[in-house]
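Co-fold these.
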Amino acid sequence: MTAYRAPLEDIRFVLSEIVALERLAALPGLEDATADVIVQVLEEAARLAETVLAPLNASGDREGCRLTDGRVTMPAGFREAYARYAAGGWAGVAADPAHGGGGLPALVNQMVDELIISANIAFSTVPGLSHGAYHAIDLYGSAAQKALYLPKLASGIWTGTMCLTEPQCGTDLGLVRTRAVPAADGSYHLTGNKVWITAAEHDLAENIVHLVLARLPDAPAGTRGISLFVAAKHLPEADRAGGWRPGARNAITCTGLEHKMGLAASPTCALAFEGATAWLVGEPHRGMRAMFAMMNQARLMVGMQGLGLAEMAWQAARAFAGERRQGRLPGQPESDGPQPIIVHGDVRRMLATIRAQVEGTRALALWVGQHVDIALRHPDPAARAAADDLVALMTPIVKAHLTDIGQEAADLAIQVHGGSGYVREMGVEQYLRDIRIARIYEGTNGIQALDLVGRKMPDGMGRRLRRLFHPMAAFVEETRPLAADDPALAAILEPFATWLARAQGISLHLGQAAFADPIAATTGAHDYLKLLGILATGWMWARMALAAHRRLAAGEQNPMLAAKLASARFYMTHILPGIGPHATAILAGPDSVPEVGSLTA
Amino acid sequence: MTAYRAPLEDIRFVLSEIVALERLAALPGLEDATADVIVQVLEEAARLAETVLAPLNASGDREGCRLTDGRVTMPAGFREAYARYAAGGWAGVAADPAHGGGGLPALVNQMVDELIISANIAFSTVPGLSHGAYHAIDLYGSAAQKALYLPKLASGIWTGTMCLTEPQCGTDLGLVRTRAVPAADGSYHLTGNKVWITAAEHDLAENIVHLVLARLPDAPAGTRGISLFVAAKHLPEADRAGGWRPGARNAITCTGLEHKMGLAASPTCALAFEGATAWLVGEPHRGMRAMFAMMNQARLMVGMQGLGLAEMAWQAARAFAGERRQGRLPGQPESDGPQPIIVHGDVRRMLATIRAQVEGTRALALWVGQHVDIALRHPDPAARAAADDLVALMTPIVKAHLTDIGQEAADLAIQVHGGSGYVREMGVEQYLRDIRIARIYEGTNGIQALDLVGRKMPDGMGRRLRRLFHPMAAFVEETRPLAADDPALAAILEPFATWLARAQGISLHLGQAAFADPIAATTGAHDYLKLLGILATGWMWARMALAAHRRLAAGEQNPMLAAKLASARFYMTHILPGIGPHATAILAGPDSVPEVGSLTA
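Predicted complex below.
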């Protein structure tokens, strides 16, 4: 089993070449977030991930979670690991210092997430939704709610959940039935059943804060009648120091644990609310707005799950391919014995695919991530709006494309391992089982595509889309002279320019088609999301190749730089052309997809 | 959980429109294999699959196999099911009547395999390799060996295995170390360890016949020093009736069972041969030839595993999509409540993808399968040679492309199910876990691609390839007038003609490049196999569309015919263009794939 090593050198490359760290440190409140501080934080996170969390990944999968009398016991070692996670301040890296947080950029939290996910994705899910709960209360909660819950969540002493799904409603939240009845003291009593709630019951933290979608008695039907409530496992009780401690058990029971394909050490719970005491968060009937605030954070994090597993798959596949000896290159004498399988062309192709996807999508995710901070903190409202547009556009792409990539990488890692990849003790098949859910939860990847094409693309007649295409087009213009002078650079820059032009044409076509016939947006959405995901990652590769070229030309001796150029060439020839079939499918239009009657014939 | 229903109507469509059944029945020895007989056999196989095997699929996965004191206990119900399988004559459907077989075409065996695999792939693996063992002994065994083993295998009273892999050698059989020492009585003593042997120990049959690769004392190194031996779990002992019964235990011990991602009810065994008594099959040092005879049979069967699981995935995904209600089409009022998810464009896209792949690759597999019978039995040596060329060319494509499709379909079925697809009780995630090994065993799909590009393509300067391209080109010529007259047909036929021309150009390019530099064949092999797989399936869709069009024009009332046309349109617009990126990758050449030094930088 391959030991995880945090890819700090690659992250530093992205921070120096793709992310404008100096822009981040210039934002109000982030003055202390210098490159040195950030690197130091990442090195500490790497130690936690490598030495505490990674060693529990396989054992957690084998042991799983157990539900006994409504209590969930986590696998051996998880309590101690969580205690170190909380004590290290990792739950609140980017939380407000006023609430006990670290006050670092959201980008740092995102990078830390990658390391923790690679090491132990199941562990990462337990505190994973605390960020969304923190964010929702921070945005919509009352001053009292913030004072109570935010320090608990930022310290990791309590964890948070998002309780949306019910047996009859997953994607379609308009069907939520959980009822909220006002009590005399201003609280509410929640009654209903929620399912597939990640970490809704566990023994890692002293309390669990549930953010719950439910209907008030006078609620209109559908999504316009949903409100957000906060309900804790233990009712918060004032302590003598003016703080809060867990009091009596609330009327919330964990009634079941899902038996899943993977993520065995992540408790996926069914919860029964039986008149549970809760408080309204924000305005009545405006729960969907708050839900989306949580959900958008969660979607970026799920994208990082894809990246984190892809990185682990890369490390495992590369290590195995360098060790396993089997076969020989054409022309090598049989008497020399077998060579490491990494010499074989098809194995190199598989490894190159994983690496180009991992490093390209890491650059993409962190590039998007810095805009989260800009959107939150930039003093200029126009700059905030522009960054917010970009985050809104790219969130479904990061969620869906990166989880696709994570699964593809995990699958290729199995293939590189051959038969060993299929047996449990090697640990590789776990990556595929664990990541498979990421393309489904927090909105299936099909829903992400509909969000992109149905909401994000048409907004402001394509305003958000232009936030992506304009800098891409400017990049092509700026780099055209370089490509003209250097065939090696041209081989990287020209395919990007060609596919960008094609993607712009397809965008115009799909925008018009969807305007005329909304069904066109639903049949073409998946292909359009993939097209933009592949293209945006290609842009990252073009930019990373230029940076590597420049540093090599300046005399820097670092084998990573030549490797970046090789990966960029591979991406442009082997992955970027994958845009083609998606473009053809979009152009074929909605009539090319069989009707319901045909599919049930 | 979706109940399996054998897709007999679709199989009948393929038999009438793609497979020339009358050509098969005209072959010597197959006079009785009329369409009526074949359909009756399939109906019986469907009953076995639907009522006996399918109900044990999920329970077999939960229970798995157990190894105790060297004995493997199969899951509950498997013994009774195997008894019915053997009593029904299914082990020897296509075996020689002289050895107690059914004497039907190999094609019938292949179709029966599909049904059994869909119902319970783990069960299917136990007798699955008996066919390869039968075939190897039939081709290379002595008369005495044939008389002893073939009736036992054809009746299913004994099962067979292929013992190739050792801990240090999977793909690279030149590294086999198992030793064979001659004994005074003409037998040999085998000593060595074999791993990943499917069904090498189980309690379904009274004896197990191992075909084992090993080295004689005077063997040259590498693959030219490997011989084939037969060694049974129980030494065969003559009975009073002149037959054979299982005698004393041979010195063969099952020392381990793999704990796998899936196929839990298929025992994957480690075997220790400790001076086991064995007999040489065929000539000394010619074991690789016999191994390939077994292996080619096994590879077509593994391709059918891909198809069988894809069919099951299709049935489950379609059923769920028709039942689960969630969301509404644009323009539907919220007050009407949710619609079945099959109405949504992206769900239809996923279902259409699975169906087009399942039905297209079924046609392809059966079209190849009929050539197995022609190659075996045709009175004209030229016709036999032509059919053999086609089978040799298409075997790696059927193995690799169909297993890719099987996994893709299983994965899409999970996606259609959303969260339900990830929980074990729904049964869908099992399809993905079960099929994942099929892209690895019996030669990884990368090895299939190398076999295609390194051996099958260059043979006779492309003679085998022309066996595929010539009839495709003739089809395009013949149908050109139809396309000119009918835009609906043109929309199906023209894309095929375009991509065929492109594929022919790429073939020429790759053939020349590989001739000049064998590394080009290794880096381009995967893409070339995929290109041919997608193209050949596209040809099947063009042919099926024409047949459906003709039958509709003749007034036939059958909704399946319109569905075939819709699937063909979908294939041409959404799947066939997938050739494009593979072509680009091949044209980019070996320099586009990073070198070893770059991948380890």
